[in-house]
Amino acid sequence: MKRMIKSNNPYRKILFGKEYETAQLRAAVVLLIPSFLAILVLFILPVVQVVLYSFTNYNLTTGVKDFNGLTNYKFILTDNQFHKALRNTFVFATGKLVIDTSLALIIALMLDARVPFKRYLRGAFFAPVVVPVVASSLIWIWFYDPGIGPFNQILEALSLPKSQWLYHENTALLSILIFSIWKGIGYNIILFLAGLQNIPDSYIQAAEVDGATGWQVLFKIKLPLLRPIISFVVMIGIINTFKVFAEINVMTPKGGPLYSTALMVVYIYEQAFTKGKMGRACAAAIALFIIIFILTMIQNKLDTKKSISLE
Amino acid sequence: MKKVIAVFLVLLIITSIVFAKGAAETTARPEVVKLQVWYALSGTSGESFKSKAEAFDIARPDIELELTYSGKYADTATKVSAALLSGDAPDVAVMAAGQLYTGGRGDFSMEEFAKDPEFNISDVYPGMLEYGKFDGRLAAVPFGISTQVLYYNKTICNAAGIDLEKNPPKTWEELLTLAKIAVEKGNINKSSDFYGFDTSDGVWLIKSMFSQNGNPVVKKAGDTVVPVFNEASGVEVATFWKKMIDSGIMPAGQHNNAEKKFLAGNLAIIAASSNRISRWQGNTSFELGAIPMPKFSQNALALGGNVMVILSEDQFKKEAGWELVKHMLKEENQTDFALSTGYLPIRKSSQQNPKVQELFISNPLYKIAFEQLDYTWAYLHFSEMGTMDAMFWYALDEIEKAVLSPKAALDKAAASLIKEME
Amino acid sequence: MKKKLHKVNKPVLLVLLLGSLLMIFPFVWVVLSSFKTVADVYAYPPKWLPSSWKFSNYATVFEMIPFARYYVNSIYTSVMQTALQLGISVTAAYALVVLDFPGKKILFSVVRSTMFVPTIVILIPMYLMVSKVHLIDTYAGIILPQIFTAFTIFLLVSFFRSIPHDLYDSAKLDGCGYYRILSHVVIPNASSAISTAMLFSFLGHWKSYTWPLIVTNKQQYRTLPIGMKYLVQESSSEYQVMMAASVMAILPVLIVFMIFEKQLVKSITLTGLKA
Hints:
The structure holds three protein chains of three kinds.
Chain A: H1 2-8, H2 12-16, H3 18-53, H4 71-78, H5 80-111, H6 118-130, H7 133-143, H8 150-157, H9 172-198, H10 201-209, H11 214-241, H12 246-251, H13 264-274, H14 278-310
Helix pairs in contact in A: 4-14, 5-9, 5-11, 6-9, 9-11, 11-14, 13-14
Chain B: H1 2-23, E1 33-39, H2 43-59, E2 63-69, H3 73-86, E3 92-96, H4 111-114, H5 126-131, E4 133-134, E5 137-138, E6 141-146, E7 148-153, H6 154-160, H7 172-185, E8 195-199, H8 202-212, E9 218-221, E10 224-227, H9 232-246, H10 258-263, E11 267-273, H11 276-280, E12 288-291, E13 301-302, E14 304-310, H12 315-328, H13 331-341, H14 354-362, H15 364-371, E15 376-377, H16 385-400, H17 406-420
Parallel strand pairs in B: 1-2, 1-3, 8-11, 13-15
Antiparallel strand pairs in B: 3-14, 4-5, 6-14, 7-11, 7-12, 9-10
Chain C: H1 10-33, H2 38-42, H3 56-64, H4 67-98, H5 104-114, H6 119-132, H7 139-143, H8 150-160, H9 165-173, H10 178-189, H11 191-207, H12 210-215, H13 224-234, H14 239-265
């Protein structure tokens, strides 16, 4: 865009003179100072500390803080529980990300169609996001109860086999996943809806006048225009799935049956607060940090590749 | 827009300063010592503690207390650790016994204070004193102590034709037999999720069982602590545990759900803390009964519950804190606390307290916990005891789900524990 | 321009209605359970309707914990955090999208990388820092560490990017400085996005749990989610009281959502440049 204006705009001097650039810099500095300070104090400083602690045997209960090199890292890399936590995290994250994004998109498209009761429907899909985690976790523990819970009651009524839900290593993680999706999908739906509403009716009407079918409108107009929102949702999704903690802590304390619902965050929490091994927890946290970083880098690369091909 | 932001910022800064000032503590004058007291007690226990502390506050004009409920045991432990690091720790705390303060930091010994004649240390059950020790030194004073008690659903047992009051099981084998009968004949709700026995705290129970089989769980070897729970006596216990699962009386891996099952009438017998008496009495849809815990080869019961600790380094605060501790542990106060909550009295002299006698008659359930006082026991507290509890949890999971044999699971736990202690 | 509804898409409607039932049935359960008696709660097979409507459960909540105080604290901290956060995010997003300056790309990555840091990782260092400046158990201590989320910034960035450059250029030609552009061009055109950001921000802060948990020790500063947790511990067998508390905790956010919903769906016309 800049190039276009530069080449044939008579007002070039006003828009791209040296004054213009310093004015921008000044404005940028002023506007960004609060953010910069916040980042420094709230993120950079603590993260630096965490990195430093990860090389010590910092113990919460005894207060010792001696340098011990790579001991912590060696420990977690050979720790069976760490491996399990890693595996669980990937399985969970993949499931959650895929379903959260695609299902939300489908629902948002449906909500954008010609249907009445939009206000009620939107409210209904968003309601789970609003319920406090502790309360909703407790409700769902009840639902998942193998003996007196309604879920098994329904399964029984449909002549299907009952499940142990949260108490069996094969079903526990799935149970948490279902809950997590129920709880979080509303966010994505609202984001997609806002994006869809941003698409001017004129585009769609013009296409319909030209004889485009619903599916063509969807794939050629709506989806491409939603691209920035979709990539935003995916990026946020990656980060958020790695943060899931409260519900796991409430519904399956101590890492769940045979450590099947222990995610990385749970592992870190356990090392830090149950065992007091802050040094080790910091090492695990750095490991988590690196993983998330790599994943978003990958997502970013894929994203830029796609948008180049579109243009 | 910028103006709006600026206004907001200014507003916030002003309000924060106002509030922050409000929260800042005023400097203590030596005539009145101010104590920050955190307690990890909720419900009836919390209220009982609070009212006694407030009575102390009124009676002692030279000491002022600020009482705060700091959450359950785990939360309080986390907060206290964090607070110790930053120097914001409370002066006195009522919290679960653990490696945290009990000497993990090296120096909260109460040995000197405990020599105070008013405290009358010989009146305290020795097992309970052990519970407050760390590394052999008295680091905390037992306060809200409990053991597990065997509760049972009288309605179910009657339907199954067993009378636990008349013929209580004396050993675990006997319990197993009775539970089997309950499972066969006692399913009055026709539930598909019906069991004979379970416990809400498997780790607690198995520690008791280890001791009952002559296994002290860990022991001191020179400078370090070594696990002994994977010796033959320990493996015997674990094998029996597996037997309970295999015989169908206990579900695998559902301890978290045990209390709910019991309250819903789908569990015949449960081993749970004695302080459930105050919570469950009168609140169950069935008739509640309680009997003493059975034994393996001898009688022993692991202690659980909370203790009082003095965390302050300040000389005056320490002394004031000790005065509070003494007050709370006076026979009539501590007994009163125990009776209203289902915790145990820590003093032998409480048996003579008329209130206690009265209560036994009016509420026989309380008597059960008291009857077990003589064989209360605490294993050696050491710096990795919290980790050890976690290991036991995993080991039980592996044993119950037949992932590892009892011996293998205990060996694995012992090896991990040794590794953690390096 | 409202879409004409004479051609209702029936199959889609059916699917949506079913889906909505799935989403809200736990909510229905919470409300119904808040009126139950203890016996109802443990009944098997599970009872949906209370046997008698105990409105007193709601009063019991206030007896068990200082619910009103927690409520006020939550409202105060959430509002302040949202206001501050929006201030920071709008200015930052604007600068990152519209302005051009050296180091922009680096700053972008830095902001993005803060999102990778799960709260739990920086919990203890943050706690130590906050206690060093004596902000433990203060409102400032709860509010300040939570005012920066890259999420909000990136949300706004995504929406700001969709504002066509023509608008900026014509504003510049009219002689607007950068601050004016922000207030007169960007904000009016992205009102839907800012409302969305505000809603999410408020919601996030309302539910915020881990940080307030660790930074408050005293009752009078606790917020609602923590209060709920303590209620759980106090009333572990009084499920119905917990449900009453949950209903009361949910209401404000639902109300906020209802209010802002209109703006969320307002379409932005891209045809015709605004003067």
